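Re-run with default settings, no changes from the original entry. Doing this only to confirm the output is reproducible before filing.
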Amino acid sequence: MVCMRMPGPVLAVALFALAPFGGTALGQCAGGQIQALDCNGIPETGCCSNEGHAVWCDGGTLCRNACWSSLCGWDDEQGRYACGGVGPGPGGEPYSCYGYCTPQCEGKECGPDGCGGVCGPCANCLDGTCVWGCVGITTEGCCVGETLYFCNYWNNALDTENCVGSPQCGWNEADLRYSCGTDGAEEPSGLLPKPCSCQPTCDGKQCGPDGCGGSCGTCNSDQACYSGLCCTPNCSGKECGYDGCGGTCGQCEPEAVCIVAGACCVPDCEGKQCGPDGCGGTCGNCPSCLQGQCVTGCPLLSAPCCGGDTLYDCSPGGTLLSWDCASQGPCGWDKALHE
């Protein structure tokens, strides 16, 4: 590539839906939280759930400790599986909780599997069904067994709390809402039923989930459901990139990248230390780059010049400056600036 001289100056933007676990009873679940009052076959030596959390039995109570910042493994000091432990137990104790316990997930999309893990992830889970928003549940809440559900006023999202061992989910007259730690009573007037019921939400939607395990409708075979609306993908003239409906128009080969126009482009950096790679990226970075090579100072003779679609010039302090002209048109002499 030849740098042509130009006379004169140039102007140059992913929770698992598992109810939070309840409190601990005196002498039980030390270092963890109560998950259930039945250990379901899991021993005191414990195991690791399908999410990688520590689960163990303590006096007939199933306990769990979330290992968010460490791994679940065998802890010699505690004599059981715990957060921060390493590997399987020395006596051949099963690492996975499924070695002791059969998950209870039939008909469930989400929620506890009975073995210390979950049946599946989703943003909000109501009685084993993935739901969106508060689905008609109020800020006063309601109960499904010993799980409390209520609508979070601040973000209009469904929140949950495990009331196992608290002792019960029920009406709290002092707070005028359902909560844990009650005698399990229902709201006296009957206007706020204790059992939760899901109200389908399809306003403004043509398709997709109704928030209660059902559907708001289906789209034609040549359409996709995107944000609740039927959308026709547009891949005309594209071999990759976004199809306008939440999908893609294809994938490029490993050595290529997808550029804005929806075409697969192979970057060209052979013999180059820096500068554009021809696909919207760079071949490397350095303080000053001239025609693909890192340079010091400003080695231009006396005036701005073009190297392909890149305009080069020197700053008053002697630093090499460059501009990529590809998106604005070819680099060249601007006659209008000198008439």
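The chain has a mean pLDDT of 81. The radius of gyration is 31 Å.
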